[in-house]
Amino acid sequence: MDLLASQLINGLHVGSIYALIALGYTMVYGIIKLINFAHGDIIMVGAYTAVITLVSLNWSPVAALIAAIVVCVLLGLTIERVAYKPLRSSPRISSLITAIGVSMLLQNAALLLFGAQPRPFPIVLKVEPLRFGGLQISFITLLTLGVTALLMIGLQTFVHNSKPGKAMRAASEDYATAQLMGINVNNIISLTFAIGSALAAIGAYLYVMAYPAVSPTMGSLPGLKAFIAAVLGGIGIIPGAMLGAFVLGIAESLAKAYISSQMSDAVVYFILILVLLFKPTGLMGKPSGEKV
Amino acid sequence: MNKKTKSITLNILGILVLYAALSTLIGSGAINNYLSNILITICITIIMTASLNVTTGLLGQLALGHAGFMAIGAYVSALLTKSLSISFGLSLPLSLMLGGLAAAMCGLLIGIPALRLEGDYLAIITLGFGEIIRVIIENLSITGGARGLTRITRLSRAFSQDRTLSMVIAFTLVFFITVLIISSIFTLGRSRHGRAIISIRENAIAAEATGIPTTRYKLLAFVFAAFYAGIAGGLFAHQISIIDAKMFGFNKSIEYLVMVVLGGMGSITGSVVASIVLVALPEVLRGMEEYRLLIYSFLLILMMLFRPSGLLGTREFSMLAAWEAMERFCSRVFKRKDTPTRMPFQPRYDIWEDKPVLETRDLGIDFGGLKAAEGINIHLSDNEIVGMIGPNGAGKTTVFNLLTGVYAPTRGEIMLLGKSIHGRAPHQITHDGIARTFQNIRLFNSMSALDNVKVAFHSRMRYSPLSGILRNASCLSEERGIDIRARELLRVFQMESDADTIAGSLPYGRQRKLEICRALASNPKVLLLDEPAAGMNPSETAELMQTIKLIRDRFSVAILLIEHDMKLVMGICERIYVLNYGRIIAHGSPEEIRSNPEVIAAYLGQPQSVQEAAHAES
């Protein structure tokens, strides 16, 4: 029973991090229909920024977090302007390949700058784990869950109640019509990349607090998982990404505990395939078909 | 020697000279062991890239798990050559074949569920399957788990004690396997099966309506690509002698995808060029080891920004020409009899006198709570031209979609030539005898006009994919037959001069005509025209009226047409159905319809109710 409970909590912990990253994928996809493969590497850049400011520059943990957010947002905006914007009217596969190119570029630039050797992430929070009966929950887990919950509520409020949020939803519903309604779609897309990158930076920070190793390819795997989470929930749908991420996180940690830790990835992909087969547009997606 | 024969000869000579040059250089030691291995890697990469191009370029479906099939081929063939106690010269071809077949089997198993999805979702599901294959291989004991398989017989050492000689043999083997595979992709691409696959990329809905069993062809392309990836995997395993599952991960699939896109999606020669360049480039950059991948990724981005269609776009160097020449040469040498031209066009219908060819009984469909069509009872007799009119949103196109199987009816039945077509797929219904055109033209835009028409002959051709690859007698005679038929059909519409024009670049009126032409090529008994005159000027419309009459007389079909142009409808239709709010509100001759008060009300509003309202006010 305790094993189950602690695995569920573990699942929520990873799920939260996936959710923060998945939001970036899903929001961008919602508007420009691009699978932004470089998003995973934004995590890596955020983690390096944090580790450098913390260790080499001796900044406080909060300042390091802010630095990570700023760097990631600037990077996200630059990538969008330089690499994706010129391709907005070309076939979608071209921008997909460009995204793959950007991802490779970031990884190799990091490899050149920092080397392949993973850097340890320092302990920024030293708090005893909390105990509930036989159950032990680390403070980092609680912090992650809390931060994620707050950010999601914030994002939902922003998207539903603010003017730019409404513009964002309009652009993702119908890109061309949104322009005709006087929405500056370019700014909205930039805003989307900025928010996605900021969330990824926070996700990166929380990720390295739990798994304290920073390396050039560290973003690939959580990036891929978060992307799968976004698809699982219904890509383009913000609450879908959150749901998908939690389902994925929990499935993964249960599979690790009860099946085998090597096979847990296979389980994740298997769930993805099952969901896509029975509900092709994801858990929260609406059916779509071409009109004849 | 004419121009064509010249270019063909040059092509074959090119391949042979290339082979002779490379093998001599390897034999003389001028190309050392290391460089020879790069040459073999290039060949294997070419197979992988070209086969992925079948799924991604020809079929138009993004697949992200191609390396998974390579892994299956690699493991199956490596395990076979390790365990079989026959000479390597025998066990290698056998194991390559079985490796390919194993990959094809997996392609089939994965494809059946996955190909129900499209676009990004298909991409993601193939990614998932590719990764599952990798994880499973990593966790099985027979595959050596995470450590992988070691001590697989090396191609470069297996054939002879003499290292150089063995390398020459290995290179010869890989080179000609590659040439064979590439030629087969070319010939398949030019066969009826290739046309079917490309038509799905161009417009899946139109392909189905033209009689292409789209699901089956998606699967065929997918399995075909998997088979070749399996063979490439087998060669790869025997080239490097140690394999582990990590070599075949997501990144590997992406690497091949990048090559496909850089070469140009749909251009097989583009894939060949891109494979050569991208395998060689990192070697050229080897001097700047550290910056190698950085430069590589940078070039990739630049390439996409400035030339997003890839090196060659969808263009090809002429390789089929080479194949044809080889054939002609062979037939001259072996004195093969000239094959007869077989015509596929035979009337399949009995004379259907007075009974209706098409009849619906209480046909209806609901979308959620909305009754989009209800109680539709229509009938068409042989050689009749019938109109269907009604205000926008009346459900006219919905009726067409029901008749062609795009929608399954909620209620009622459709009888074609006295038989119910309930539960038939759209391509089967086309085969049964109903053809249609679309309200917004759906042509196979980047295919030639002639090929658009040829696609519609598909269901009446018989030759198999294998004869398509080999271009044997049955393939050639049928192809020649439909070439004649398709050109005849174009001539009826005065479009023979457009035969080689790309459909998408034809002027609007001719595109409409071509669509009708394509519909007729499937030899229908009933032709459905959805707003054929939309967007036409009065003189074009007048011409169209003549064409429609001509079609009826010449092809003896019953025509049901949706149209808003009243001059056309009243001018050529013998009977007219009027739809409003999903129901038939009137039916009769043009004169009856013109004076029917309900019809006038539906188009112009309710004069009575206005009067009544005025009356009530006073």
Can you describe what's shown?
The complex is a heterodimer of chains A (292) and B (618). In chain A, 49% of the residues are buried. Chain A has helices at residues 2-32, 39-56, 61-84, 92-114, 139-161, 163-173, 175-180, 185-210, 220-233, 238-258, 264-278, and strands at residues 119-120, 130-132, 135-137, 213-214. Helix content of chain A is 73%, strand content 3%. Chain A contains 11 helices and 4 strands; from the N terminus they run H-H-H-H-E-E-E-H-H-H-H-E-H-H-H. Chain A is mainly alpha-helical and 292 residues long. In chain B, a hairpin with a 2-residue loop joins strand 5 (411-416) and strand 6. Chain B is of the alpha/beta class and 618 residues long. Chain B has helices at residues 3-28, 33-58, 66-83, 88-114, 119-139, 155-158, 163-190, 192-202, 204-209, 214-240, 250-263, 268-284, 292-306, 320-334, 396-403, 426-432, 449-457, 465-470, 473-492, 508-521, 538-555, 566-572, 590-595, 597-604, 607-617; strands at 358-367, 370-376, 379-380, 385-389, 411-416, 419-420, 434-436, 526-530, 558-562, 575-580, 583-588. The A-B interface holds A 33, 35, 83, 86-87, 90-91, 93-98, 100-102, 104-105, 108-109, 111-112, 224, 228, 231, 235, 260, 262-263, 265-266, 269-270, 272-273, 276-277, 280-281, 290, 292 and B 62, 113-114, 116-117, 120-121, 123-125, 128-129, 131-132, 135-136, 138-139, 146, 205, 250, 254, 257-258, 261-262, 265, 290-291, 293-294, 296-298, 300-301, 304-305, 308-309, 397, 401, 406, 438.
List the helices and strands and how they pair.
The complex is a heterodimer of chains A (292) and B (618).
Chain A: H1 2-32, H2 39-56, H3 61-84, H4 92-114, E1 119-120, E2 130-132, E3 135-137, H5 139-161, H6 163-173, H7 175-180, H8 185-210, E4 213-214, H9 220-233, H10 238-258, H11 264-278
Antiparallel strand pairs in A: 1-4, 2-3
Chain B: H1 3-28, H2 33-58, H3 66-83, H4 88-114, H5 119-139, H6 155-158, H7 163-190, H8 192-202, H9 204-209, H10 214-240, H11 250-263, H12 268-284, H13 292-306, H14 320-334, E1 358-367, E2 370-376, E3 379-380, E4 385-389, H15 396-403, E5 411-416, E6 419-420, H16 426-432, E7 434-436, H17 449-457, H18 465-470, H19 473-492, H20 508-521, E8 526-530, H21 538-555, E9 558-562, H22 566-572, E10 575-580, E11 583-588, H23 590-595, H24 597-604, H25 607-617
Parallel strand pairs in B: 4-9, 4-10, 7-8, 8-9
Antiparallel strand pairs in B: 1-2, 1-3, 1-5, 5-6, 10-11
Helix pairs in contact in B: 1-7, 1-14, 2-7, 2-10, 2-11, 2-12, 3-4, 3-5, 3-10, 4-10, 7-8, 8-10, 8-17, 11-12, 17-19, 17-20
